[in-house]
Design a protein that fits this description.
Shape: globular
Strand order of the largest sheet: 5-8-9-10-11
Strand content: 5-15%
Largest sheet: 5 strands, parallel
Number of strands: 15
Structural class: alpha/beta
Number of helices: 22
Radius of gyration: 26 Å
Helix content: 40-55%
Length: 585
Amino acid sequence: MASMPSEACGDDEDDFYVPHFQRIKYSQDETGVPVEDLKSASEMLINAMKIRQKYMKMSKQDFPSFVKRFMGALDGNPVIKAPGDAYKKVDLKTHPIHPPKTEGDPWENEVLPDCGYKVKLEKGVYSVYKNEDDLAAKKPIKYDFVDLETFVTDMQTICGYVCDGPLKSFCFQRLSFLQSKFKLHSPLNEVRELAEQKAVSHRDFYNVRKVDTHIHAAACMNQKHLLRFIKRSLKQDGDLPVSKIGTKALTLQEVFESMNLSAFDLTTDMLDCHADRSTFHRFDKFNAKYNPIGESRLREIFMKTDNMVNGKYFANLLKEVFVDLEDGKYTNLELRLSVYGRSVDEWDKLAHWAVSNNVYSDNNRWLIQVPRLYDIYRVHNSVDNFQDIIKCLFQPLFEVTIDPSSHPDLHKFLQYVSGFDSVDDESKPENAMFDIDVPTPDEWSWHENPPYSYYLYYTFVNITVLNQLREERGLNTFKFRPHCGEAGPIQHLVSSFMMCESISHGLLLRKAPVVQYLYYLCQMGIAMSPLSNNSLFLDYNRSPLPDYLMRGLNISLSTDDPLQFHFTKEPLMEEFSIAASVWKL
């Protein structure tokens, strides 16, 4: 190989500036792989990307334009760039440094008229009908979606690719090459990159835009912030009824007296919300850290949206986090709120909490996380079968899309919801692969929890139908971005590759070169949280993040749970600074 300088950029100062970096070129086009294996590997990788492209197109999720152009050229259908797609240079007048702030009531939006559509849930999938006559005649609107048989076939196909020996060797070799190429690029261009970095006005390590795409609302504050908030609430609202024991209402002061505590006694050590050695590979103990002082009552009072005070404390706590965000200017969040799927009015209660308490910030959008807890709900008879969960999750969303006036607060709230997440402990034992004869959700009535991919498929297919309906109505659509690859089998990463725009964690990609290379080729987003992983599943110095970065995977840093893992008011900056120091980024 020989290093070659890049082509000089155009003389016209309006041209897009290309820095003078030294590039790496091959002296020969040899791969070291037999031609037959190379051809077979290429065909399998292309077929896997076509499967993902099909699923993304149906569900109205993003698929990279450069991959789309490559796939189109391969099939003889080149994708022509529209005139508006070309790069255009902008100035500070049209695109100011700071985005304009929302004026007036952020919850005001147009209420569309009722379009008269009807919906029906059959075998875990919603169908949409134009009117009652079509519903009676069983003539649904032909929205595209992937049926169960196609999904099972596609998943088994990609799982077969993952186990293919020559393909594994090829993908591992390509990933190693990408990493070596990065290592060679760094010493050749380090000085030039530093000069380019310094030349960018009004941007440095502190004020570059940062988005925390994986953070849970119930743990978005640090321990000190939560402690001060609890003390202040105890002093100001000590006589406010906040909890019930039987028929008796307890004030906040009485709740703390029942624990033999006062505001003076409280410390961050007593809160005991920070992850420690006891949480490593113990997801149950980690979940218990959400309970301040080990008391689930305090979690109910301060960190829930549905309680005796209409989530007043949780709303005020989030507003204080938003004030810090707006003061800092350059950090944005995508906070996760839970919808459990136990009751059809959960969405309305959540939306009412957000609108009535005015929980809004220009620096935040919401992501809805759905815990995979069917087995627990079934044991307590909260649901009769898995289809009950699907109904509670999606029935209100279809209703509000068809007739926004039926759920006015939910219609206002959904304009700030960007997508869905699926959460729980992935290390739970399960039958990761299932066949076409798997029971449908209306038949899944026993107490065993469905597999991860089963949850993902039925969430994905209903998001697909919902997104097509919402796009038809001119409303915002939703992405699917679950927790995936933190633990558990490789099949989790395969199903996410097919159905999800991006994922959180992705640690197990390091053990699956074929899936990792597919994530690289499709530039599938991975929000990584090495400080979180350090306390739960993988020591910080063993994190694959620097390898993913050198290989060119589309990764970002996120905080996950600042309450458990961070100490400062700027947890995302803490995450970046530690990564920069440890890995010399």
